[in-house]
Amino acid sequence: MKDGPRPRSFYALAAVFALFVAFLWGPMVAIVALSFQGPDGGLVFPMRGVSLHWFAVLWSNEGSVDISGAFWRSFRLALVVMVLTVVISVMAGLAFRRRFPGAMVLLYIAIASLIVPSIVVSLGIGLEFRLFDGLVQSLGGDWAQRNFVTLLGTFTSGLGAHLTWTLPFGLLIMFAVFNRFDPSYEEAARDLGASRWQTFVHVTLPIIAPFLIGVAVFGFTLSWDELARSSQVMGSTNTLPMQLAALTTTVTTPEIYALATLTTGASLLLVGVLLTCAFVLRRRRSAG
User: Fold this and answer.
1) CA distances from 135 to 122, 130, 139, 288 (A)
2) What are the residues whose beta carbons fall under 8 Å from the beta carbon of 161, sequence distance 6 or more?
3) Is it the case that residue 137 has pLDDT exceeding 70?
4) 209-227 burial: b if 16+ Cβ within 10 Å, else e
């Protein structure tokens, strides 16, 4: 049976969707194209030659700011945040499977940072660590006066600030996973003589592994591009988003477009790798 003519509403909705896609991806396509400008290229079309000149400027640190240092600093921080988000989220999900007094209050406290403005969280953490600095200086005596500077840093206050953003998402995902988890698999493993640790490693973990990859994606990408929560807590070092913000006020070359292309490509590459891992895990589980 042949389909009849499509109604006009179909074409109207298709046109609206096409405009939405163009609005969503058009600027990114333009930025990627302009990042390959020649040495004399500007910030707008038409392009003046095609080259990798502006990428070389980024990595040679001949540009306005230290991009390569900020890139690897953000990358290492995002990896640490990703691992901690996955581990803590799994542990919390396992803990909340058991009923205990104050569970709901603790849950609300854990996810409260999602509704607090990010800049307020950053200011609060920065103030807290400055109080710690004063405490160290008052207790450290002459050693603190000579050697101590601050506790503010990428893997101290910066790490804590990023975890306040990534952990609530990881917790919500794991709570949803364990709410639908069938405990009969674990009971069967224990009936066969498996210990609690063996049950977790050989039964629970393989079942929830695809969801852990989703938590890892959230943890890495949210940390990778976080700006507001980093603004007051990084001390003397900057992350890549902070350097990008600095470039928007100082640079007048396609260097900023090259940086945007690199950061977007790195994010897409990681997401692609993790999704591939999830697909492989699912195929292996189906084959098993």
Assistant:
1) 20, 9, 6, 57
2) 121, 122, 125, 226, 229, 230, 233
3) yes
4) ebbbbbbbbbbbbbbbbbe
Distance CA 85, CA 108 (A): 17
Residue 267, both tokens: 């994010």
User: Which amino acid makes up residue 204?
Assistant: T
Q: Which domains does the chain have, with CATH numbers?
A: 66-250 (1.10.3720.10)
Which residues fall within 8 angstroms of residue 83, CB to CB, at 6 or more apart? 219
Cα dihedral 257, 259, 262, 266 sign: negative
Confidence (pLDDT) at 1: 46
- For the record, the structure tokens of 155 come out as 């893997």
From CA 241, how far away is CA 77, in angstroms rounded? 12
The candidate with the shortest Cα–Cα distance to 215, out of 161, 265, 168, is 168
Residue with tokens 């928007």: 248
Q: Tell me the C-alpha distance between 10 and 152, whole Å.
A: 56
Q: What is the pLDDT of residues 74-129, one digit of tens each?
A: 889 999 999 999 999 999 988 888 877 887 888 888 888 888 888 888 999 989 88
Task: Give the model confidence (pLDDT) of 149-184 as tens digits.
Answer: 788 888 989 999 999 999 999 999 998 898 888 888
C-alpha pair distances (Å), 155 with each of 27, 38, 140, 215, 234: 34, 38, 22, 20, 9
CA–CA separation, 16 and 13 (whole Å):
5
Closest CA to 211 of 78, 111, 86, 98: 86
Q: pTM of the prediction?
A: 0.80
Strand partners, 50: 37
* Structure-token pair, residue 52: 């990798």
Rounded distance between C-alpha atoms, residue 270 and residue 276, angstroms: 10
DSSP code string of 131-160: HHHHHHHHHHHHHHHHH---S-STTTHHHH
